[in-house]
Amino acid sequence: MSAYFAFARSSFHSQLAYRNEVWANFFGKLVQVFARVAIWQAAYAGVGAIVVDGVSLQQMVTYALLGGAVMGATRPERIIGEIGRSLKTGDVAVWLLKPLSYPLYLFANECGSFAYRLMTQVIPTVAFTALFYGMLPPASLFDGLMFIAFWTLSFTLLFLMSALFGLVAFWLMTSFSLDWILGALLQLFSGLLIPFWFFPEPLATIARHLPFAWVVYYPNAVYLGRLSTADVWLHLGLGLGWAALFLAGVLWLWRCASGRITVQGG
Asked: Where are the transmembrane segments (predicted)?
């Protein structure tokens, strides 16, 4: 495990080396969050109400801030791009000679990047915008603690989804457009842009049962107290089930991809 910890630490330090990029990413994240909040302020002003379908404007502002935090700490395109570059350069074949797991290396690498983005982008952005707009606290201590659990699950699921899409590149021989496809699915079905309680039926019901919902919607819904205690535990279990399914898919695809490398590479 010390080797994977070293990979995570190296990923963290390598990104800190570019100080100007740290500031650029921070201001870029601020612009995204301000735009997201402005959209909901305009939408509520357009209907002339501060509560729509039982959801207040302040809850939607908090949802927008949290959505940026949850999604902002993980970059699916970076994971898919890393796999694509390794495949293009042939570096991925070296992992067959090492007593290490390539999927675990990717996970450790992303953990380091996650820590970097959390410290330099997510926390400063949320803190600054919360002071500017105001941000609701968790609905209860239980909801706050479970939000952390759901956020951890969100990170794990998003990594596994990205790795799964990235490994498909072994059959396409390129990762081009794979990150775009996953990004489009996340934008629509994760609840990042629009919470599911504003979705029309039956699309809302379908979206709540897709794995993308555990990336943004359920962590935020738990934070705001939109789920009962029983539903929180139920959806945490369902999310863990999705994570186990994606993990099995990643391991199976990597095993199949390793076979292709061995056959094609001799």
From this structure: 114-136, 148-173, 180-199, 232-254
